Amino acid sequence: MADRVAVDIGGTFTDVVLETGGRTVTTKVLTTHAEPAAGVVHGLQDVLARAGTKATDVGVVLHGTTLATNALIERRGARTALVTTEGHRDVIEMAFENRFEQYDVNIDRPRPLVPRRWRLTVAERMNAAGDVLTPLEAGDVEALVPRLAADAIESVAVGFLHGYANPAHEETVASVLGRELPDVAVTLASAVCPEIREFERFSTACANAYVKPLMSRYLADLNERLEGMGVECPFLMMTSGGGLTSLNAAREFPIRLVESGPAGGAILAAQMATELSLDRVVSLDMGGTTAKICLIDDGTPQYSRAFEVDRSYRFKKGSGLPVRIPVIEMVEIGAGGGSIASVDKLGRIAVGPQSAGSEPGPACYGRGGDGATVTDADVILGRLDPARFAGGTMTLDTQAAARALQHGVGEPWRGRDCPIADAAAAVAEVVDENMASATRAHAAEWGKDAAGRTLIAFGGAAPIHAARIAEKLGLDAVLVPPSAGVGSAMGFLAAPVAFEVVRSRYLRLSEFDPGLVDAVMADMRREAHEIVDAIAPGRLTELRRAYMRYLGQGYEIAVDVPADPTTENMRDAFDAAYEQLYGRLIPRLDVEVLSWTLTLRGEEPHVPAIKLDAAVAQDAMSGRILRSALRAGDRIDGPSTIIEDQTSTVVPQGFSARLDEAGNIWLGRTT
Fold first, then answer.
1. CA-CA distance, 627 to 649, in Å (whole number)?
2. Which of 81, 185, 355, 604 is the most exposed place for a label (fewest CB within 10 A)?
3. Is the peptide bond before 362 cis (omega within 30 degrees of 0)?
4. Which of 406, 319, 403 is nearest to 368 (CA)?
């Protein structure tokens, strides 16, 4: 079997996993933000050298990245224009016309990606059925070309009212711009998000257009560098929905990559839950910049078609840029190893969302950072081995960490005499409470409970904090998989090829039309096959969902479409899904379908069990043990720390750790 490579670019580290001969070789390298492909090549060269294999042995490269997300958050995308229906240029700024924080008079709304001067309009109109009310004149589109050229526009989003029902006018604009401005990228709202609700559709189209040139250049650069190394094989991209797609699809719809890294982690946790028969799981993926939390029931993570990028108001729902894409539902907060701690005027310690990232990074990295970060606190608390951090590729500066904590937290909190260990413990406690609180809120939002779940911890920082978070949530078991420090990249190896297509076609159950359903499904199936067949020939499975609500409600829920849909079985499926989520039904009220989705998935790849390296002696430092020295059945009582190349697992007082036959570390309470 050919070797497989998985690469996950995060805000702080780039993780690379090589699967070869039934074993895995992993590495972490600092993310090179100015030239992301350079970090990938560096990491790949490292794992190939340590595995003793050649680049030509690699049979597939699987890749996920936060580059699109970071470009949106940091506003580093292309100069983007929006072409829309006359009179509707301000849709993306008016948004929902509500207040996501009712009582804050100084509320800050998300700033649109496209400033008003670059929102251009033309006379045209479709109705909700897709019938032309006002024809589009090609001359009106051509009249926009000089303006776009003069302003050096790099990318254009095209979104017309009801374009989801009939994309003809949007396609006309694309044709004219492709002829007149061939170097300008074009995104059609009807292609990237063919759904009702113009604000979310236009917002998604603008976000895709904003990152399209950047992601296209990056993917082309990385592909060229890989080929230059001799890696000439399929190059697949992880999507936010937990599936793999082609490089061409990723270039066309880069917005689908915004949560690709975290999605890999959720896939890993779901696979482990299935293998270990864990019915209720919460996954914690804590890296250098953020922490991601996902609820997994019966081996399946929750899915959604809505996501917000760059929530600016304490991560409150409604304070970010909405995008409509297939996504694994999770909550993401600014709680990573690089999250910066500070003290406000009331003497309260806050951690994040600002992060030191990889440039300059936490103070202990010795790269010029001076902010007090979570990693600095972990170093002071003895949770990290300064000599073995990131597999020994970096030596942490304990004194720099102490200075940053003293200046950034200790002095403003308790004065110059504040013990540095107290400041470090306070930072750790605050970030742990942030993650526990986010987990509780996320579970409650979906009508679920965090209690009684198994916590699966991965990412460079999660195993360090997992036991304390479990304690706060009242959980009894924590699972730390092998190679947990690169968990998201490991998840890429378990992901199937998949692609989801959506269509908005209105239908009431009281007027159910099976012919309409069949036609919609056939149309979506053709589009999905065009992408999936080329990279996953063979047996495919099909998942169909309807987005349904009671007549007159504002938002829908996802309902699996039965094999042979009828009024009766569609109603039964809706009732079951609605009651599970809300605990009640509304009798004698009609139900309507607004949108339909169809996902084609290839077979899930076989991921061999991870084989640990040969045993080495126990670390001479008190309370520190090398993970590779442990064997199945070994038990360690806290307080202790289990060290490995990309992370550490903290076993606090009152907990014990044991290693199972598969190499997983299980943490459980002893008191």
1. 9
2. 604
3. no
4. 403
Using 50, 70 and 90 to split pLDDT, how confident is the model at 611?
very low
Question: Does residue 123 sit in helix, strand or coil?
Answer: coil
Q: Residue 8's pLDDT is what?
A: 93
Q: Which two tokens stand for residue 345?
A: 């005027």
Q: Give the model's confidence band at 423: pLDDT under 50 very low, under 70 low, under 90 confident, else very high.
A: very high
Interhelix angle 198-229/67-74, rounded to 10 degrees, is: 130
Query: Would you give the distance in Å from CA 250 to the centre of its chain?
Result: 15
Q: Do 619 and 626 contact (CB within 8 A), yes or no?
A: yes
Q: Answer whether 8's CB lies under 8 Å from 66's CB.
A: no
Encode pLDDT of 89-127 as tens digits. 999 998 887 777 777 777 777 789 999 999 999 999 999
Helix (H) or strand (E) holding 273: helix 260-275
Answer for the pair 548, 512: CB distance below 8 angstroms, yes or no: no
Cβ atoms within 10 Å, residue 441: 15
- Interatomic CA distance for residues 549 and 537, integer angstroms: 36
Asked whether residue 609 carries a pLDDT value surpassing 60, the answer given is no
Asked if residue 254 has a cis previous peptide bond (ω within 30° of 0), the answer is: no
Question: What's the CA gap between 176 and 566, in Å, rounded?
Answer: 43
**Residue 556, token pair as written in the block:** 């829908």
Tokens representing residue 206 in the block: 């603008």
* Chain centre distance of CA 331: 9
CA distance 86 to 586: 40
What DSSP string runs through 517-559?
HHHHHHHHHHHHHHHHHHH--S--EEEEEEEEEETT-S--EEE
DSSP 614: P
pLDDT per residue as tens digits for the range 73-91: 778 899 999 999 999 999 9
Q: How far apart are CA 181 and CA 191, in angstroms?
A: 20
Residue type, 155: S
Which class for 455: exposed (0-12), middle (13-18), buried (19 or more C-beta within 10 A)? buried
Task: Return phi, psi of residue 143, to 5°.
Answer: -65, -20
pTM for the structure as a whole: 0.86
Mean of all residue pLDDT scores within the chain? 89
Q: Is residue 86 helix, strand or coil?
A: coil
Beta strands in 436-590 (DSSP E): 454-458, 477-480, 498-508, 541-550, 557-560
Q: Angle CA(32)–CA(33)–CA(36) in degrees, nearest 5?
A: 65
Does residue 112 have a cis peptide bond before it, meaning omega lies within 30 degrees of 0? Answer: no
pLDDT for 432 equals 94
CB burial of 558-593 (b: ≥16 within 10 Å; e: otherwise) equals bbebeeebeeeebbebbeebbeeeeeeeeeeeebbb
Taking the alpha carbons of 308, 313, 315, 317 in that order, is the dihedral positive or negative?
Answer: negative
